[in-house]
Amino acid sequence: IMQALQTNLDGKSKQYKDPSLTNLFLMNNIHYMVRSVRRSEAKDLLGDDWVQRHRRVVQQHANQYKRIAWAKILQCLSIQGLTSSGGSNPMGVDGQNSSGVSRALVKERLKTFNIQFEDLHQRQSQWTVPDTELRESLRLAVAEVLLPAYRSFIKRFGPLVESGKNAQKYIRYSAEDLDRMLGEFFEGKTFNEPKR
Fold first, then answer.
1. Where is the Exocyst complex subunit Exo70 C-terminal domain (predicted)?
2. Main-chain dihedrals φ then ψ at residue 125, nearest 5 degrees
3. Which of 20-24, 95-99, 110-114, 121-125 has the lowest mean pLDDT?
4. Phi, psi of 128 (to 5 degrees)
5. I want to staple 61 with a disulfide (CB 3.0 to 4.6 A). Which of 27, 141, 182, 194 is the partner?
6. SS3 128
7. Both 95 and 8 in a single domain?
8. What is the Cα–Cα distance from 125 to 123, expressed in whole angstroms?
9. CA-CA distance, 73 to 172, in Å (whole number)?
10. What are the backbone angles phi and psi of residue 158, rounded to the nearest 5°?
11. Number of domains the chain is built from
12. Greater confidence, 42 or 85?
C-alpha cells in the first residue's frame, strides 16, 4: 500500500512545471505519510527504519527545493565576476575595498536580485506547507543562507550604489525586510489577498 502511495505521489509530482514546487509537494506529502505512520499502528508494521528512511527523504526534498529555488538569486549576491581579482577573496571581509568593481554591474546585480526575490515572494507565498514546524524550518534554512549573503553583499558593495542617484531603486530591502517577507512564504496566500 505504501509503495502504491509513493508511486502515486511521484506521478502527481510530475504535473508541476516548477522543479522546486515538485520538491515541495513531495516533501509535504511524504512528511504527512511519516507523521501519520508514527501516530498509528502502521509504525509497528513498517518499523522505525521505514520512518527514519522517509524522514531523510523529506529532508532531501527540502534541500533540493532550497537548492533549485534559491541558486539563481544567490548568484546575484556572489562576488564572482564583480572584482578584478576574479572573486577569489572571501566576500564581506572587513577591510577589503571595492576597487575594480563596476558600479553599473553592482546595480545590475541588485536589480536582478530584486526582480527575482519579488517573483519568488509572489509565487511562493501562494504555496502551502501545512505543517507549522516544517514550514518554519524551511523558512529558517532559506534565511540562514540568503540573509548573510545579502548583508555581506550590501556591506561590501552598497556604498558604490548609495553614493549614486536613486540608491533606493537598487537597494530596496533591508535584511530585516527580506526576513519579514520570508515569513510570508508557504502561507497559501491568493493573488487578491492584501500583503501583510
1. 1-183
2. -70, -20
3. 95-99
4. -125, 135
5. 27
6. strand
7. no
8. 6
9. 15
10. -55, -45
11. 2
12. 42
Domain boundary among 12, 46, 71: 71
Q: Which of residues 71, 97, 121 is at a domain's end? A: 71
Grid cell listed for 177: 525586510
In the chain, the DSSP E strands lie at: none
Handedness of CA 39, 44, 46, 52 (dihedral sign): positive
Residue 43: pLDDT over 60: yes
Beta strands in 1-85 (DSSP E): none
> What single letter denotes the amino acid at residue 67?
R
Q: What CA–CA distance (Å, rounded) separates 191 from 122? A: 8
Query: 115-141: per-residue pLDDT in tens?
Result: 999 999 999 999 999 999 999 999 999
Domain range enclosing 110: 77-196
pLDDT, averaged across the chain: 87
CATH number of 193's domain: 1.20.1280.170
Question: What is the maximum alpha-carbon separation in the chain?
Answer: 66
Q: State the Cα–Cα distance between residues 144 and 149, nearest whole angstrom.
A: 9
Q: Report how far Cα 96 is from the mean position of its chain's Cα atoms.
A: 28
- Work out the pLDDT band at 89, boundaries 50, 70, 90: very low
pTM: 0.82
